[in-house]
Amino acid sequence: MTGYAGDTASGADRGEPDRAGAGGRLVDAYSLVVFDLDGVIYLIDRPIPGAVEAVGRLHAEGRAVAYATNNASRRSSEVADLLTGMGVAARPAEVLTSAAATAELLRDRLPEGAPVLVVGAEALRAELRAVGLRPVSTADEEPAAVAQGYGPQVGWSDLAEASLAVRAGAPWYATNTDRTLPSPRGPLPGNGSLVAVLRTALGRDPDVVVGKPEPALFTTAARRAGTGRTLVVGDRLDTDIEGARRAGLDSLLVLTGVSDAAELLAAPEERRPAYVSFDLAGLFDPAAVVAVPGRAADDGWSVTEAGADLVLDGAGPPLEALAALCAVAWSTGAGPRVRAQSTAAEEALAAFGLDD
């Protein structure tokens, strides 16, 4: 069951995207690999171990790559420079940001030169200027729209001006609604947490959310692949994986960022990936990736229900145990609390942080 060989029902049978064929490397089934950034390639400004080498290997093989990020605090060119500085040779055209996508959407809906109140970083203002719109800072300037994106310096006064503008009738655009963003010290408040402040004050949701899990970033990237297949690689079930599914694309969850094994076991159908791996090695090594769900029982692992809990018994590679746990959890709603019935099961659960 390691890798993506197996006898589970096809994606088409379940109303999902078709999965890669059995055998060989996962990456060989796709023409384009679209990476999320934070939690997949880097954490804030530090590359995740093995990520630079993985992308370099794709480049060396002549494979197309793209980067889709909800982070609105950097422009595409800045993201490309950051990646290049880490050893990943990236071009601005390969980077799709929610800031740029928001600016392009507003450009299509507003007259040239229209004022837009910005809550966020300078990158969002720069993207708006680049498409011919005029960033402003106060509701007194009668903005035609409010654009809200993540910025570490966003404060109460920024949110207050946005609240006044929206109450006065300006449509409210959020670049994304990520509740958190990853960091070496653990998850930190993301743009979704700031959006929640305005949602509480206004008593309503944004008029438009541009970034993931909306499919626009992924569908734009997939069009560049032509007739080839696209694989989305992400660390968040609620943005990367759900966004990929909305776009009709296969997805690989890597456990290097926000979402963990417990969240995976509890994932609703719209947030379930096609594959799981510890890190980007799963693109190349069939033993480092698994298709999910697996089977509840095979020659190595078995999973049974015990009330609301799952019980893991047997032995084998940890990823196969996780796939078997997904099979039962997703079909019955049991878990994500798991108990071990063998020493190997205890070790597997510890590897996924499921041993509490």
UniProtKB/TrEMBL annotation:
UniProt keyword annotation of Hydrolase present: yes
Domain GCN5-related N-acetyltransferase-like stretches: 299-354
SUPFAM superfamilies: HAD-like
Position of the signal peptide: none
Record keywords: Hydrolase
Domain of life: Bacteria
Coiled-coil residue spans: none
Region entry Disordered, spans: 1-20
GO molecular function, one term: hydrolase activity
NCBIfam families assigned to the protein according to its UniProt record, in alphabetical order: HAD-SF-IA-v1, HAD-SF-IIA
Protein name per Swiss-Prot or TrEMBL: HAD-IIA family hydrolase
